[in-house]
Write a structure and sequence with these properties.
Order of helices and strands: HHEEEEHEEEEEHHH
Strand content: 15-25%
Radius of gyration: 18 Å
Number of domains: 1
Mean pLDDT: 82
Helix content: 25-40%
Structural class: alpha+beta
Number of strands: 9
Largest sheet: 9 strands, mixed
Low-confidence stretches: 5-17, 103-107
Distance between the termini: 67 Å
């Protein structure tokens, strides 16, 4: 009996990391799908905005978790351009968590994809340094779409992060002011096989894992290094 318990415990110990990695692999794949959809919509994220970005954060299928309160919770991924000035190709992904609280649109039971476009070094630094409150630590605004995106200047508007959403195929710039996000350390450990901070990943300490190549390749194809 004791041998069976030991064997079962060993099996569970071996299976747990594999299950965690599979879950995070799915998150990376879903993030790539959400990014592709938001880039493809007529009123989605314009490439002209992405071309100016230092980083992007994707939260796929965020669902409301408290009916009548409006709270929602999502898990996603952050990808930044490489180089000291964040002007190179896109680097390895770091895992993040979103806590939307009771702000913004009321999602009901409908899943919503969110893409946050980080427009400058200040916004990237705030997000990498720990828990970030949009509208507090980092100035956030609904992202421009269509003709409004032409010639948009985030610096003159004093905006660090532009936010976009997609619900049931409908695209919109949406305010996430008041939402907070922070690194998902357990997920990063599952993806990279060791304890590692988001900053270490973004600063170029790791190669892109196989599950993250879909998202990174999409970004490199759509918006290569800044000119």
């Amino acid at each position: 009996m004791n041998n069976r318990l030991v064997t079962l415990a060993l099996c569970l110990a071996l299976a747990s990391p594999l299950f965690a990695q599979k879950k995070e692999d799915e998150r990376l794949a879903n993030s790539a799908t959400a990014m592709q959809a938001i880039l493809s919509g007529d009123k989605g994220l314009p490439v002209s905005i992405l071309d100016k970005a230092d980083c992007i954060v994707v939260f796929p299928s965020v669902k409301k978790v408290a009916i009548g309160i409006g709270g929602s919770y999502g898990r996603g991924v952050m990808v930044c351009r490489t180089g000291a000035s964040k002007d190179g190709s896109w680097g390895a992904p770091a895992m993040y968590k979103l806590d939307q609280g009771s702000i913004g649109v009321q999602l009901g039971s409908t899943a919503t994809d969110f893409v946050l476009v980080v427009m400058n070094e200040k916004g990237a630094a705030q997000i990498l340094n720990g828990k970030t409150k949009l509208g507090g630590n980092a100035a956030a605004a609904a992202g421009p779409t269509g003709a409004a995106a032409n010639g948009y200047n985030a610096d003159s508007m004093k905006v660090d992060v532009l936010t976009y959403s997609r619900t049931k195929g409908l695209f919109a710039g949406v305010s996430l002011e008041g939402a907070s996000m922070e690194t998902d350390d357990d997920a990063n450990k599952a993806v990279y096989g060791k304890s590692i901070t988001a900053k270490q990943i973004i600063d170029g300490g790791e190669s892109t894992p196989a599950a993250g190549k879909g998202l990174v390749d999409l970004l490199d194809k759509t918006s290569p290094a800044k000119k």
